[in-house]
Write a structure and sequence with these properties.
Blueprint (H helix, E strand, L loop, with lengths): L5 E4 L32 E5 L6 H17 L3 E5 L6 H8 L7 E6 H9 L7 H4 E10 L1 E5 L8 H9 L6 E4 L5 H13 L4 E4 L3 H9 L5 E5 H10 L3 E5 L25 E8 L4 H16 L1 H10 L2 E3 L3 H22 L5
Parallel strand pairs: 2-3, 2-4, 7-8, 7-9
Antiparallel strand pairs: 1-12, 4-11, 5-11, 5-12, 6-9, 6-10
Helix pairs in contact: 1-9, 3-11
Length: about 325
């Protein structure tokens, strides 16, 4: 299957106790899939707060995954450090298929954003399955006198020392997307990082910050209700879920950004375990009810083999490294 074949439009974070040590995927009786199933619950760590894009995505697919695998799947939110706390925990976990990481673009960004990491996404992890990709929306409070991207830039330039933008943390996808926007538009703005999407959105809705790039999965309900105003989408093409929104690229050609979600396992995880989990993700995203929920949120399903998922991850690490360098962003 192609590396990141976009099957259909679709959309899409973990706290936990100690990791379960020493669990091994036992060869349970074969099922119709031809694979043995795990004999204990699987733990999926999400490095962001409940309600963040990756958290939503994972919680959409895990119930169906559980049905396929015949075991419960525990989603644990362990937010902090741009998702790195969860990543570090999984990197040190036993490579047995029972501890997985739900991450994506934030982990790819961290590889060059952070000067010191205790893990390497490309060496310490194996990509198990891509889930979905999600564009972001340039979102402002409806009280602002701007209806288009051009209007907003004009307004921003008239408020050179007043513009503030919210993100889900330094080095997050919304942060670097805003930095890309700043470089192209020439506006000045003050970065206000938050610990998670819900807190940032609450302050944007309250009018305490000027704008934010928010993934479509999270923000469309607020745009549709009128509590926030969406100006443009960061994808290369307009979204089928919000066709009324122009792309940022229509004002600044070449602008494209977004986030994506995938499951990873520690390097060395048995191939049969990776294959079983990959199959469970695929079955989940192909289930009509799950698929319809993604579509309703405006996300885009991603597909491919575990090898395709790893190739996609490498390409994303390379892409965001260029943005980090150009923006001068750095976290120690």
């Amino acid at each position: 299957m192609a590396a990141h074949t976009r099957a259909i439009p679709v959309a899409l974070t973990i706290m936990a106790a100690a990791l379960c040590p020493g669990m091994v995927l036992a060869q349970a009786p074969s099922t119709g899939s031809g694979h043995g199933l795990p004999t204990r619950p699987i733990r999926v760590l999400v490095g962001f707060t409940p309600g963040a894009g990756v958290d939503i995505a994972v919680r959409l697919v895990t119930p169906k995954m559980s049905e396929t695998l015949g075991q419960s799947i525990i989603v644990d939110n362990r937010p902090g450090a741009g998702g790195n706390i969860a990543s570090e925990l999984v990197a040190r976990a036993p490579a047995d298929g029972y501890t997985l990481l739900a991450n994506g673009a934030p982990a790819a960004i961290s590889q060059t954003l952070y000067s010191k990491l205790s893990y390497d996404l490309l060496k310490d992890f194996e990509a198990v399955a891509l889930i979905a990709s999600v564009s972001q929306i340039l979102t402002i409070h409806p009280s602002l006198p701007a209806k288009t991207t051009k209007d907003f830039v004009t307004f921003a330039k008239s408020r050179r020392d007043e513009l503030t933008y919210a993100t889900t943390g330094s080095g997050s996808t919304p942060h670097l997307t805003a930095e890309m926007f700043r470089m192209l538009s020439g506006i000045k703005m003050l970065h206000i990082p938050y610990k998670g999407t819900p807190l940032a959105l609450n302050d944007l809705i309250a009018g305490n910050v000027t704008f934010m790039f928010v993934n479509i999965l999270t923000v469309m309900q607020h745009v549709n209700s009128g509590r926030l105003r969406g100006l443009a989408i960061t994808s290369a093409k307009r979204s089928t879920i919000a066709p009324q929104l122009p792309t940022v690229a229509e004002t600044y050609p070449g602008f494209e950004s977004g986030t994506w979600f995938a499951l990873f396992a520690p390097t060395g995880t048995p191939k049969d375990a990776v294959a079983r989990i990959h199959e469970a993700v695929t079955r989940a995203t192909q289930a009509p009810d799950v698929r319809d929920k993604f579509i309703a949120q405006g996300a885009e399903l991603l597909s491919g083999t575990p090898q395709d998922a790893m190739a996609y991850t490498r390409a994303e690490v390379s892409k965001w490294a260029k943005v980090v360098k150009a923006s001068g962003a750095r976290v120690d």
